[in-house]
Amino acid sequence: MAKQVSMVRKSLILSLVVGMVVGMGNGSVFGIYLMANLGRGNFAEWGGWGVQSYNPIYFNGFMTWTMLVFGVAFIWILLSALYGHDKMSKIQEGGGH
């Protein structure tokens, strides 16, 4: 009988892409919420182009880092759920041991 490949291994690339897209979308919604509640401030403090858009002192940089952190966190959550599902299905196949 052939050995089954784990669900995490089968869907790793899909999990990375989907997790990053969904997580970054959630991070942008979080940033929009902050922008609406805290106010935008002066245009000079909004951020800039290039490297300045990754500087967390400016709001644009803070938004970029928030989206990246949310994306990585969502990837971790998605892979953890797939790992747990894979583990439970192996226990079921083994007769509960």
Could you explain the architecture of this structure?
The protein has helices at residues 7-10, 12-38, 59-93. The protein is built from three helices and no strands. It is an all-alpha fold. The radius of gyration is 20 Å and the shape is elongated. The protein starts with 6 loop residues before the first helix and ends with a helix. It has a domain at 22-36 and 49-85. 10% of the residues are buried.
Summed up, what is this model?
With 97 residues, the chain is mainly α.
Return Rg in Å.
20 Å
Structural class: mainly alpha
Helix content: 55-70%
Please state the overall shape, judged from the principal axes of the Cα atoms: elongated
In whole angstroms, the N-to-C terminal distance is: 20 Å
The number of helical segments is 3
What is the topology?
Layout: H1 7-10, H2 12-38, H3 59-93
Descriptive labels:
97 residues, 68% helix, mainly alpha, 3 helices
